[in-house]
Design a protein that fits this description.
Elements (H helix, E strand, L loop, with lengths): L4 E9 L7 H19 L7 E5 L1 H10 L1 H13 L2 E4 L13 H19 L5 E3 L9 H7 L4 E5 H6 L11 E5 L2 E8 L1 H6 L5 H14 L3 E8 L9 H7 L2 H11 L4 E4 L1 H7 L4 E2 L8 H6 L3 H14 L5 H4 L11 H4 L1 H23 L6 H13 L17 H22 L6 E6 L8 E6 L2 E6 L5 E7 L4 E2 L11 H17 L4 H4 L25 E5 L5 H5 L14 E6 L3 E12 L2 E12 L5 E9 L7 E10 L8 E5 L4 E4 L4 E13 L4 E24 L2 E17 L7 E10 L1 H14 L2
Parallel strand pairs: 1-2, 1-8, 1-9, 2-3, 4-5, 5-7, 6-10
Antiparallel strand pairs: 6-7, 11-12, 12-13, 13-14, 14-15, 16-21, 17-18, 18-19, 19-20, 20-27, 21-26, 22-23, 22-24, 24-25, 25-26, 25-27
Helix pairs in contact: 2-3, 16-17, 16-18, 17-18
Length: 731
Amino acid sequence: MGCRLRLVLVIHNHQPVGNFEGVFEESYQNSYQPFLDVLSEYPDIPFSLHTSGSLMEWLVEAHPEYIDRVRGLAESGQVEILGGPFYEPILAGIPRCDRIGQITAYSDYLKKLFGTPVRGMWVPERVWEQSFVSDLVDAGMEFTLLDDSHFSAAGIRADKMHGYYLSEDEGRLLKIFPDNETLRYQIPFTDPVETIHYLKEIADHHPHSVVVFGDDGEKFGAWPGTYDHVYRDGWLRKFLDLLRQNSDWLKVTTLSESVDTVSPLGSCYLPDASYREMNEWALSSERQLELAELKEKFAEAEGFDRLKPYLRGGFWRNFRVKYAELNEMYTRMLHVSNRLQSLEETGVDAEDLPALHEARTELYRAQCNCPYWHGAFGGLYLPHLRNAIYKHLISADTLLEKITHRDANWLAVEVGDFNLDARKEIRMASNRLVCYLAPAQGGHLYELDVRGAKHNLLATLDRRPEPYHDIIRQAAIEQQQGSQNGEDIGKIHNAVRFKQPGLEKKLQYDHTPRKSLVDHFFQPGVDLETVIQGGGEVGDFVQGVYLSSLKRTDEDCEVRMVRKGYVGPYEIELTKTVSLAKNASGSLEIHYELSHLPADVPLNFGVEFNFAGMAAGASDRYYYNHLGKQLGQLESKLDLEKTDRIGLVDEWLGLDAALDLSAPASIWTFPIETISQSEGGYELVHQSSVVIPHWEFVADENGRWSVTITLSMDTSAAQAKALSEAAASGA
C-alpha cells in the first residue's frame, strides 16, 4: 500500500529558570527518563525532541547519562534535535537582537553537545508574530511548528492543514507546520485506538499528507496522574505498538524528513496569535469572563463550530498592560539588554570580554518566559520564578557596572522613562544598591535591588481579580452545601482542588500598588484590621504626582519629591527626600517633612514598605525588634507600640533588612497573599510582607512635623554563602 500518511511526534521538555531542584528531579524521574526508556525499545519509531536550555543545562550537570542516551539516539537517526531560543523566552517579549542571539547560541550549544545540525526549532508558548519569520531565518532556522489555530485565524480550513506552508518576511522564507489540536487533546489521554482511527480517516481522505503532534513532554508522566496511565498502565507501549502495526500505511517520521521529501501546501502569512487558551488569558479578567459566557451561551447554536476559528481572544503583549509588575520586569530587562548592546557596539577592553559574555548569559536567563505571563499555571504569581528573573537581571547589571566603573565605590543617578509610561523615573545606583523611584506615581520606590544578595526587595505582586476566583467562590458554596447534606465533597466539584482550606475567605484586592514609600494619612485611631482591609485612608497622596529635583555631589545623591495635597479638608505639603551615599553600607536615608499642617488637628501619618521574596512560614525568616528579639515569622500580623526599629531576616537568602526611625512609631505588619491556580490546584501564595510605621501627632507651632527613616540591607551572610559555594564548586 505504501506510505499514505506521515506522522511527526514532537516532544517539548521544559523547566523554567529558578524552578525548584526537586521539580527538575521529579520530572526527570517521572517523565524524561521513562519516556526514553520506552522509546529506546522502538528504534524504528523516530521523534523530534526539543529541550529548553534551562532544562538542558541541568541535565548536563545532574544526569549526564541522559545526555549520552539522547546523543546515541540522535546519531542513530531516531531523534531529531530541535533548537529554539536558549532559555525559552517568548519571542514577543525580548528585543530582536536577543531573539536571534538566543536561537543562534542554543544551536551552537546543541551542535557541540550532540554533534548533529539543528535545522528547526520550537517556538515558546507558540506566541507568534509574522515578523519573526526573518528573525528565525537570520538565526539559521529552516522550519518550525505552530498551533493549527494560527492557521485557522489566517483563514485556512482544517482539511488544508495536513502538511506545511511557506511563510515570508523581508524576503526570507520559513517552513511552518500546523500542530494538530485533536492529537494534542487525544495524546496521551484517550485510547490509542481512537488516535489510530483519527489518523486513518485523514489518510483515507487526504493521502500523502503530514500530520504533526507537538506538545509538552511533561504530559507523559510529570503531570498529575499521568505516570501511572502512561507507563504502569501501558498507554505509551500500546500506542507505539499500534504505530508499528499500522506501518503499512502510516510512516512515523521527523520534521526534517518531511521538509526534504514533501512539497509545501502553499504560502501563508499568519496573524499575531498563540494557542487558544493563551490568547484568552491575555484578555482582562472582565473580558475573559465575557468571552467565556458568550461561548457557553452560543455553544449549541447552529454554525457555532464554523464561527469558533474566528474567536481569537487577546494579544500576548497585553499581559504587560494587565500586570504592572510584569511590565516592570520587562522594562528592567530591556534596560539591561540595551546597555549590554551599547557596550558591545562601542567595544570593551579585552580583559572585560569574559564579563561581557557572562552578562549576556545572565540576561538570556532573565528572559525565560514563565513569570512573564499567567494562565493555567502559576507563572507570574510564583515568587521564586520572579525572584530568579531579577537575580539574573541584577547579576547582568552588576557585571556591566563593573565594566563601566573602575572604582570599587561609585555612585550614579539617571533620569529616564524606565517603565515606559511616558513619565520620568529616577534611578539611583551604587556598588551595593539600585533603586527606582516614580515621582509621578506617588513618589513610590518601586524597585530596590540588593546587589550582595542579587535580590529585588520590591518584586511584589498586587492582589487583583482573576476569572477563576469565581470558580473558587462557587466551589466553596457547593462544598459547604454538600457538607451540610452529608455528600462526598470530593465528588461535588472534582475539577476544583484547594491546596489549603478556606481560600475563598482570602480573596481580597488591592486598590493601590504594594510598593515602598507609599504615603498614607489614616483616620486617627484606626485599627490594624481596617488598614488590612484597605480602609481608613483620608489623604490623596498614595498615588498622587510629586514634583522632583536632584542633587548630586561626589559623595552622595538625593532625590527630593514634593506634593501639595489634601488630608480631609486640609491642604498640606509633603516633602520626602531619598538619599544614597557612596560609602553607605547598603542603606537608604528617607527624610519626611510635612508642612502647612492645620493647628491642633490630630494627624495619623504612615509610610508603607513592602518586602518581597523573603518567604513566609519558615522559622529562619522572621521579624525582630530593636533588642534583636524575634517577633514572629514574616506572615505575622503585628501591632507594635512605640518603637524605633524593626527588622526582617531571611537566613536562607542571607538578607537582613531593617527600618530605623528617628521618632518612635507604632508599627503594623501583615502579609500580602494571593490565590492563584497551578497544576495541582488553587493555592495561597505569600507575595510580600507589609510594614507600616505610623505616627499620631499634632503639628508644632509652625505647622510642621518631620521624621527620618533609614532603610538598611545587610547582605554579609549572603556574600559569605556565595563565596563558600564558589569555593566548593572550584569556581
